[in-house]
Specification:
The structure is a single chain. The chain has 23 helices and 29 strands. The chain is of the alpha/beta class. It has 4 domains: 51 residues, N-terminal domain of TfIIb; 239 residues, Rossmann fold, CATH 3.40.50.740; 178 residues, 3-Layer(aba) Sandwich (Dimethylsulfoxide Reductase, domain 2), CATH 3.40.228.10; 113 residues, Barwin-like endoglucanases (Beta Barrel), CATH 2.40.40.20. The strands form 8 sheets. Strands 5-4-18-17-16-6-7 form a 7-stranded mixed β-sheet. A 6-stranded mixed β-sheet has the order 23-25-24-29-22-26. A 5-stranded parallel β-sheet has the order 10-9-8-12-13. A hairpin with a 6-residue loop joins strand 2 and strand 3. The longest helix is centred in the N-terminal third of the chain and has 19 residues. The protein binds ligand MGD (2 copies), iron/sulfur cluster (SF4) and molybdenum atom (MO). The site of one ligand MGD has 33 residues, from helix 5, helix 12 and strand 22.
Length: 687
């Protein structure tokens, strides 16, 4: 029996894997743990399927002169790869080699990948899929609090809340066991869900559970400015807290003065009275939380929207107060740790800034290199991918843990960009759609085949444990990076052991915002609760901000933000919102292989309102064409009164011609470089 955590999302539900005599090597059982209380969702329950033979990669693949991928030996593949990387750097400079990481990698792998990019490849061109996920929330939290830990409190703190304002998150589908933490607020009628769809989470508000606000997509910033307006105009804010713990109040007050609820109602579609009531109920509550998800963050103004949510929380005196707070719900399994250890274009391990000379000196000393050889800040994901094959752009790309030809915005242009590369290398355990385009594919270890650590949505460091032997032929990413580093004559040490890489990561993080220096695999194995920062001798930090925020003056910053104008929908052009279905995970590389998960939605569906369908001659189960300037696709109509009539919803889990990202916009947020995944304008028609 092996105690570990789920391979998928950031809730990191605890599970026990037991060797089974059946067709799959292990059976899965939920295990009691504060985040999941023994519960698992369908994806967790069926995760052992991933360990069966479902097209698992077991040898390196190299594209031959015939244009096909062929099995190859490890040694010759790595020799070839190292030679091509050297050649690319010699001919076009170090920055011609790019690295794209993922928030599903363990801390150890994420750390080693960042180090490999900086001192083995000497490239600044590294970024990762967390840019598509947490970057707006991270930018907002860093700006307001001076630190970014998704939930600065344990999840179980929510259990006793009186009011919870949940903006743009559908945990009912995306983290089902999370719902148990909303039940307290729901029982008190205090659950407020903001979503253009009556999602499974919004349905929890029915029957006295609370309030569902159903705004026009992309108008949450206006809604939040109006909530702030009411809180200030009606003097509902916590004056002592604002005076003692924040700065920036005067500018904030000025910025919301014209956002009276009636004006906001015309833009958001949320009645002015509802805005007033929600503001008052938040202010009245003894214990209140404000939480944000991708629905409000994945926009060109996502950072400002998350900032407004934080402003509201600060005015109400929530962050750091007992039984109250603000948090963002991190998505990927290691979405939190993945943004702390150096995969991000501007970061070094420990959530340090790559531009900070002291941070560079500290990390260089741990790596055993001169700080001058560490490159400066790189470029964020969308720009990195789009630069492929262009002058000054990357010519070779190593992808670890992302399926960008499904999940990146405006994906037709990303597919074209990858086609321009001289060399695409994908490490994966399955032949993802991105791997199908690669020149070299390297088979790596997955979840239950490896040791390591993950940091969940509460900033709690967890042990991932090996329960089964990997197939002969697959290799750990630590091994691959070490072998390449050796062939590239890289400085530094390249351990193959997660336990040792963790110790090095811990040293590199010492003194940084995300300080892991008091942790080790051995300590984690004792079962301690390990919320970072965790310096030596500490007991960890389940709750941040109880005394001070992380800015030098100890105060949180209230930031005045402005709403921008969006093009409104018309009878002809509807809002497209994209997101998730319960039974599929991300680009679907993993979950599309599990028959019981595929059975419910075998093909792409589009949700639309019956009135909208009628207007366009669309019937339930019929084929719908959805198009805009960027592209088009066909989906099966799922009619539902749960969505606004001006809005359609597509999940993004499907590849090829069924990819929702054929329609999404790659314009990015100026602060976070987050693309606009959650709002596009489209035409729909019956096929
Ligand atoms: N089943 C499943 N679970 C997952 C994942 C998965 O792929 N599948 N992925 C994991 C990851 S990486 C992440 S990041 C999380 C994401 O978790 P969530 O943030 O919960 O997921 P989404 O479905 O992307 O978006 C949530 C909701 O935002 C709403 N929304 C869209 N546009 C707007 C808007 O403009 N305003 C508001 N207020 N709401 C809007 C959508 O209707 C949707 O119901 O899920 C994690 N869990
Ligand atoms: N339209 C639209 N697009 C979106 C979103 C949206 O809401 N709407 N959401 C965005 C968000 S929040 C996210 S997080 C991204 C996610 O999208 P992706 O980055 O594509 O994420 P995954 O599908 O999880 O891809 C992970 C890939 O890496 C592999 N993998 C898993 N673990 C490992 C590992 O340890 N090592 C290696 N080498 N490979 C591994 C998996 O098999 C899979 O092929 O999508 C973004 N795209
Ligand atoms: S909620 Fe997330 S962590 Fe829990 S079982 Fe489902 S996918 Fe796994
Ligand atoms: Mo995500």
């Amino acid at each position: 029996m092996t105690d570990t955590h789920c391979p998928y999302c950031a809730l990191q539900c605890a599970m026990t894997l037991t060797p089974s005599g059946g067709p799959l090597p292990v059976s899965v059982a939920g295990r009691d743990f504060p985040t999941n209380r023994g519960g698992l969702c369908k994806k967790g329950w069926s995760s052992a399927e991933l360990l069966g033979d479902r097209g698992r990669l077991t040898t390196p693949l190299v594209r031959g002169v015939d244009g096909e991928l062929h099995s190859a030996e490890w040694d010759e593949t790595l020799d070839l790869l190292a030679a091509r990387l050297r050649q690319t750097a010699d001919e076009h400079g170090h920055d011609a080699v790019g690295v794209f990481g993922g928030g599903g990698l363990t801390n150890e792998k994420a750390y080693q990948l960042g180090k490999f990019a900086r001192i083995a490849l000497r490239t600044s061109r590294i970024d990762y899929n967390g840019r598509f996920c947490m970057s707006s929330a991270a930018a907002a939290a860093n700006r307001a609090f001076g630190i970014d830990r998704g939930l600065p409190f344990p999840l179980t703190d929510l259990d006793t809340a009186e009011t919870i304002l949940l903006l743009g998150s559908n945990v009912g589908d995306t983290m089902p066991p999370f719902v148990s933490h909303l039940q307290g607020a729901r029982a008190r009628g205090g659950l407020v869900v903001v979503d253009p769809r009556r999602s499974s989470t919004a349905r929890l508000c029915a029957d006295g559970g609370g309030t569902h606000l159903q705004p026009v997509p992309g108008t949450d910033l206006v809604l939040l400015l109006a909530l702030i307006h009411v809180v200030i105009a009606e003097r509902l804010y916590d004056r002592d807290y604002v005076a003692a713990r924040t700065s920036g109040f005067a500018a904030l007050r000025g910025s919301v003065s014209s956002w009276w609820p009636e004006r906001a109602a015309t833009i958001t579609g949320v009645p002015a009275q509802s805005i007033r009531e929600v503001a008052r109920s938040l202010a009245r509550a003894e214990s209140a939380y404000i939480l944000t998800g991708r629905g409000v963050e994945q926009h060109v103004d996502g950072t400002d929207t998350a900032t407004a949510a934080i402003d509201l929380a600060l005015l109400l005196g929530l962050p750091g107060a007992p039984g109250s707070g603000y948090g963002t719900l991190t998505g990927q399994g290691n979405g939190q740790g993945g943004r702390e250890h150096g995969q991000k274009a501007d970061q070094l391990p420990g959530y340090r800034k790559i531009t900070d000379p002291a941070a560079r000196a500290h990390v260089a000393a741990v790596w055993g290199v001169d700080p001058d050889i560490i490159p400066g800040a790189g470029i964020p994901a969308v720009e990195l991918l789009q630069s492929a094959g262009l002058p000054g752009g990357i010519r070779a790309l190593l992808v670890h843990g992302s399926n960008v030809v499904v999940s990146a915005p405006n994906v037709a242009t990303v597919r074209a960009a990858l086609d321009r590369l001289d060399l695409l290398v994908v490490s994966d355990f399955f032949l993802s759609e991105t791997a199908q385009m690669a020149d070299i594919v390297l088979p790596v270890l997955q979840w239950a085949e490896e040791e390591g650590t993950m940091t969940n949505l509460e900033g709690r460091v967890l042990r991932r444990r090996r329960a089964v032997d990997p197939p002969a032929g697959a290799r750990s990413e630590l091994w691959i990076l070490a072998e390449l580093a050796r062939r590239l004559d890289a400085p530094g040490t390249w351990s193959l052991e997660p336990i040792e890489v963790f110790d090095e990561l811990a040293r590199a993080s010492a003194g940084g915002p995300a300080d892991y220096s008091g942790l080790s695999h051995a300590l984690l194995d004792t079962g301690i609760e390990a919320h970072w920062p965790f310096p030596p001798g500490s007991l960890g930090t389940p709750r941040l901000f109880t005394d001070r925020f992380a800015h030098p003056d100890g105060r949180a910053l209230l930031v005045a933000v402005r709403a921008r104008e969006h093009e409104p929908p018309t009878a002809e052009r509807l809002h497209l919102v994209t997101g998730r279905l319960l039974e599929q995970y991300q680009s679907g590389t993993q979950t599309r292989r599990v028959p019981e998960l595929v059975s419910l939605h075998p093909a792409l569906i589009v949700q639309l309102h019956p009135a909208t369908a009628r207007r366009h001659g669309i019937e339930e189960g019929g084929e719908v064409r959805i198009e805009n300037d960027r592209g088009g696709l066909t989906a099966i109509a799922e009619l539902t009164g749960d969505i606004r009539p001006d809005t359609v919803f597509l999940p993004f889990h499907y590849p090829g011609t069924a990819s929702a990202n054929l329609l999404t916009d790659d314009s990015v947020d100026p602060h976070s470089a987050m693309p606009e995944f959650k709002r596009a304008l489209v035409h729909v028609s019956a096929v």
